[in-house]
Amino acid sequence: MRTAVVQGRQEHLIMKTENLRQRAYLNTVASWVDVGANMLVEFFLKPIIISLLGVTVYGIWQVIGQMNSYMATVDLRSGTSLKWYVAQNRTSLGQMALKKAVTAAVLANLFLLPLYLLAGAIIIWLAPAATQAQPEFHFIIRLATSLLVIGFVFNQYAFLLQSILAGMNLTFKRMGFKALITILSGVATVAVLYAGHSLPAMALVGIAMALVSGVTYWWILKQNVEWFGFARVSWTEIKGFFGLTVKFMASKTVNMINESSDYVLLGYFAGPQFVTSYAVTRYLVRATSKILGSINSAVTPGIGGFVGEGKLNKLFEARKILITVNWVAITVSGCVILVWNRSFLSLWVGGELFAGTKESLLIVVIASLKLLKNIDGSMIVMTLNIWKQNIVTGVIGVATIVLASILVPHYETLGLLIAIGAGTLVMALAYSILAQNNYHTAGFVRQLFVTRKSAVCTLLLLLASFAGARLEVHTWMALIGVAAATVLFVVICIWLFALNKKDKEILISNCKRVRFAQYKEA
To answer: Is 280 in the same domain as 334?
Structure first.
């Protein structure tokens, strides 16, 4: 039995020992189910949506959707703060302290409602100019953007509930629910378009799905988290939570500058048609990035407890495993995409929308760097000491936008990707340096980028890009066959040439300790 002191009294806390590897596996499976559903919905429905809306209007939808994410500039990120607070303290604090954190997070979001509305009004006014749309589209754009703003607010509360589940390392408890909501959303979107409606109706579907998500997560929490609920909090306690959330608000804002500017920049300086081409070219990369990113997301809440418990050796060992897994996964998926993306797009939406071989390589490189930087980014967040990370991210983000604004008018999509690639590389190096400084250790940059596996995997990606410019297939069956053969070839190359003996032992050991056929915690 463990005990925790809460406001001068002792509260008994009984914690069941977690099987971190099994939970990480189950959380990963849950995320893969969600991403798989999203991929399938996009794969089958995106060509339909593009054909119903047209290339230009679809590009406008992408731009206003990304602009809606700018609402995060007035979001204190209560959900993210709550997730990491629960992840770090779920084994060391009492139930009352966790309930108070939930209550403070909900109240923080309520206090932000006027700011949400103000930011939304600004985005609604600017949306037509940002899309470079003709005047006849302006009313529809503003109406759709207004509904997206409402959906954003509703999603904040659904995200709060999702964050509690993630912080408790119980993401796998949602398995299948989020995937079902994604499928319903896709079907509803196509239905309203076939009925003759346009962008506002698509935004209304998003609002409905946000409400469904909120109710679903509430039910899952009531079933699986015994302490879930609310408690009376003082203004002092609310202000204390604000102090934590301000860090994450700044973090979200600077990350938004880096992650949510590409469509807007490309649409404004080059036109919405380029946005559509860019969006479909990066479809496979975006989908696989979500799959691979879910590995990190599944593992980090569990190992975040090592920080609170002071078990840094275990944390560093987990980081080494994540690096190896990420390099392997990045190289296998990246090589397949680089060789066969052009063939895939020709069969899926038409080869004329393929952005180009150089552009495809840069999209894969950028996605790979983002996955690698997120490893040390999470290491920083676990300490809750993120101000330096926020400053670095913000400075690099602004520099990236400036560089893109210079390059995009001359080089369109290629110019955008050069700017983003340069910024992402600098950020990845900076995150590693900041992380090792936070933990008073050394070698983070070398372990991430200067190893045998990083050199061999980078070479394989370059060779795949070279091959992709020269190889093409023309049927779905042929594409499936050559993609499978490419996976096998790359895996063999990685095993023989990229991984050293210790890397192989770590992978084999961890695979043996996970019960792959057991879909419950053991």
So the answer is: yes
